[in-house]
Amino acid sequence: MRFFFGKNSALSAMVLTFVALSFLLSSALSIVMIKSTSSQLESQMKATLAADQQSFMDLYDQRRLIGIREGMERRSSVEHDDTFIFMLLNRDGSRLGGNIQHWPEYLTPDTSFQTFKYSDSEDVSHTHIGIGQTLRGGFDLMVARSTVQNDQMIASQIVVAVTVTFGLTIIGAIVGFILSRRILHQINGINSVAAKVEAGFLNERVTLGQQRNEFHELAVNINSMLHKISSNQQRMNTLSENLAHELRTPLNRVKKTVYQLSSQCHLDKEGLQLLVEDIRSNIDATMRTFDAVLEIVTANEAMPDKTRFSPIDLVGITKEILALFEPVGEERDIRFLVDLLPQGRVLGERQLILQMISNVIDNALKFTPEGGQVSVGLNHVGANLKLSVSNQCEPLLENLDEIAFTQFQRGSNAREKTGYGLGLPLVKAIATRHDFDVRISQKCRCFTVEFTCPVI
């Protein structure tokens, strides 16, 4: 129940809001229902009073005062209804008939429905609705009915409405509390994992629920994010370790050469020049390592500036690269087998794509034995272009596809070759930046790098 009863708990505020809305909605519906019932009862009473008045007027039209008086006496003797009162007055205000003795104080004979108080035989005051009218000849006639029954019916409806309103509010609070507990349990689970990750336990993961709901999807996304963070952290640690290892050799060489310079003062100009060149070459190698790492970091930017992208002719740029590498292949008797489409255009940065393809072809030439061949192809695969570079080489490690794109990782056949294991990682970074899918495969003595590129 952590956070639920907290001062700033959003979940408790949501539940309270839900309960308040349930109460207000139930109250509003109850008020509307009561007002509607009251209006209907009042309309029915007024219709009944109009009918009562009309019946007495019909008797007056037929037999004048005698007819009305006989009608009133008959109703008084037959009907014993205390809620219905009626009376007929003479011109001088004296009583001619009816079931009450005195004309109601606040009732005027103006033919309109009026509400007034009138005391019954037990001197209990009740609210009545009545209508008074002066007949032809100056006689006053009134009929009225008590609202006691209507008031009792409305009162009972109010009791029912209040009971239902509070019942629904309590049920809503219970349901909201139960649902909020389930939600809070899942939120607390996510918060607990987040706190552990913040403390440095990057292997923590959110427990996936059995129901595939929004929280399940959220947990999957969080776990995927944590896996990526953990993988990136592991790669960063590996990169730091490998970078330190790779830089140790050239820096030790520089240190050794500097020591020679300081201890051998008798060196001639030629010997001194050799030592300086050795220092310069080692420093250049170190700088190239840093430049390659910076290029990978830059290419791995999460949000590349695609405003710098432009249509690139992949066929033309591949031919341009091949023209540069063909002399290198001829020196080692390596043939290029080229199978390109007439045209293939993609969207990207020309310099980066040029570097990406150059790295792959340079890598292929480096590991192809003399007299071998390198195949370069470009063809359509569905709505995309597929660029492939294959070369003959010695059998490679089974898990090469897992380490090929890892910085400073090199295959067993690369130990005698110059390099730092940064070529393919840079290729991967540039491909990802351009939304290209890059894959490697090895079959027998053939190593292939394939790019799937969205065509424009």
Q: How would you describe this structure to a colleague?
A:
With about 450 residues, the chain is α+β, with helices and mostly antiparallel strands. The protein contains 8 helices and 12 strands. It has helices spanning about 10-80, 150-200, 215-265, 270-300, 315-330, 350-365, 400-405, 425-435, and strands at about 85-90, 95-100, 115-120, 125-135, 140-145, 310-315, 335-340, 345-350, 375-380, 385-390, 435-445, 445-455. It has a 5-stranded antiparallel β-sheet with strand order 2-1-5-4-3. A 5-stranded mixed β-sheet has the order 7-9-10-12-11. A two-stranded antiparallel ribbon has the order 6-8. Helix 1 packs antiparallel against helix 2, helix 3 packs antiparallel against helix 4 and helix 4 (about 270-300) runs parallel beside helix 8 (about 425-435). The two termini are about 55 Å apart.
Q: How confident is the prediction overall: mean pLDDT? A: 82
Range of strand content: 15-25%
The biggest sheet amounts to: 5 strands, antiparallel
Query: Using only CA atoms, what is the Rg?
Result: 49 Å
Class per helix and strand makeup: alpha+beta
Proportion of residues in helical segments: 55-70%
* Rough outline: rod-shaped
Describe the structure concisely.
By secondary structure, this protein is α+β, with helices and mostly antiparallel strands.
List keywords for this structure.
5-stranded antiparallel β-sheet, 18% strand, 12 strands, alpha+beta, single chain, 456 residues
